[in-house]
Design goal:
Keywords: Signal. This protein has one domain. The protein has two helices and eight strands. The strands form two sheets. Strands 2-3-4-8-7-5 form a six-stranded antiparallel beta sheet, with helices on both faces. The radius of gyration is 20 Å and the shape is flat.
Length: 147
Amino acid sequence: MSIRSCMTRTLLLLALATALPAQALSEREAARLAEFERFAGAPVESMPFWRLQSYEALGTEAVVVWTAINTAWLIKVLPPCTDLPWAKAVGLSSTLHKVNARFDHVIAGGDRCNIASIQPVDYKAMRAERKAASAERAAGKNTDKSK
């Protein structure tokens, strides 16, 4: 086997190995985005913003930010925002403690991503549904064991 064919085979295997985890991540992000969209309200012009408590990037065009324990906002950004999924931290621009759709930005890595929309998320309802589904699965497992 020539050196060239060995290198080609190695590069092909490396490309496959890196593509598979990226695809799985995209599917996970798509599922999480769909879940947040189910609990998101109508788009609003602005949101109050004093402090960013936590965030979850959902691909290159959406991020959920928590401004308090149970206060979540789904923010969609205009492409390109390629650093969003990989950023170690994100920030939000704001004016007078308000983040405005179409005027403010999500800052992720080297990107300043224009905000397309902001939607409040009923995070308490989302957590309650998850808890109920988890209890239902646990009850189903206990029923299966007793048979």
